[in-house]
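If you are new to this repository, start here. Below is one unmodified record pulled from the training split, so you can see the exact layout before writing a loader.
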Amino acid sequence: MKKTSILIVDDNEGIRETLSSILEEKGYDTDTAKNGAEAIEKSKTKFYNIALLDIKLPDVEGTKLLTEMQETSPKMIKIMITGYASLQNAVEALNLGANAYIMKPLNPENLLNVITEKSKTQRKSETMNQKKVVEWIKTRTLKLERDQQVKA
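And here is the target side for that same chain:
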């Protein structure tokens, strides 16, 4: 099984390094970005299962980045992280497609639980989609075989 890949987007280098270290220790493949522009560029060239997005970035509001990443990587799990928690930005982030919303200071165990739970949901969804494709191919093949028998 391939490793879950996580993009950590935060303007604070210490947070990026700490999260990367914690996640890599747990077996995740991590990459980091210090701003929204770097995050968008990286997500266009590499697939990430999960993105941890800071709400306050120097070049873009986290919710704007969330919207852009929703367009470029709709299957990616997006977890908003903020030290500026408010009901308004939590609701806005979730309405824009965030899969979770976590407040700083981060509790590593809580973050790992959220990542584990969201990863399971993502894998289950991928498995169900693969099953649907297999069923569609089987049904289509049977229909084509039946149509050829009718013509013969």
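Two things worth knowing about this chain: The CA atoms of residues 82 and 103 lie 5 Å apart. The longest strand covers residues 77-82.
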